Amino acid sequence: MNKRILIIFxxxxxxxxxxxKEIRFKYVDAEGGLRMRSIPDLxxxxxxxxxxxxxVSILEEKEDTIHISGKSxxxxxxxxxxxxxxxxxxFLSDKKFxxxxxxxxxxxxxxxxxxxxxxxxxFSSGSVGEGCGPDVPIYSFSSDNSAWVDSDCESGSKGNxxxxxxxxxxxxxxxxxxxxxxxxxxxxxNSGDKERCLDQYRHxxxxxxxxxxxxxxxxxxxxxxxxxxxxxNFPTSLNIIKSGELSPINMGCLK
Length: 255
Prior knowledge:
Elements: H1 2-19, E1 24-28, E2 34-37, E3 46-50, E4 55-61, E5 66-68, E6 71-73, E7 75-80, E8 83-88, E9 92-93, H2 107-110, E10 126-128, E11 138-141, E12 146-150, E13 156-164, E14 167-174, H3 176-187, H4 191-199, E15 207-216, E16 221-231, E17 244-253
Helix pairs in contact: 3-4
């Protein structure tokens, strides 16, 4: 009897060992964080944004490689802090990043802001913003005075910037074709399909101009104000964007 019990127990151990999956980990490599979605599609519901450099568990990967924001990768199902969902694998890395300080703290607390008690006199390039979405996008300022507004960590708009005193002025313009291009690229099978998709929007004369003003504060953070100017005709999907003043918002440290 004891021998039979030992054989059964050994068999259960072997079965458990064979059925156990190896857990893989990767790290987020996206400056503004990485959006987790309910399904492996850009139209999927946004569950949360995973902060940059955080460790995630890999559960599943789709076979097809796709391209988003100049990155190549696969839709990947992950687990983070007990929540499961899908992310674009092009913003995941095998590299473990060193821990970094939270730049949202003020200079008085930890001197974390690079431009605390400084001016913009020698500023030539940098960025501000820690998240994704219309309220806290990432604004990047290049040395050639071009600007990039990353509105959802996957797409955005281009423009230009200049400095006057302690303020950075940014102007970006979105046309109907600009607003549709990302969706047309994702849904197109080939370049011809993309052009046919964009043809639906080329007759529209709309323009949405964003005039941003970033004022450098003494603690090294930037306060964003400005306005939106909308003219002409746009797809109904953009009717939510109206002309008007932007409410002041502190964007955190200028980096």
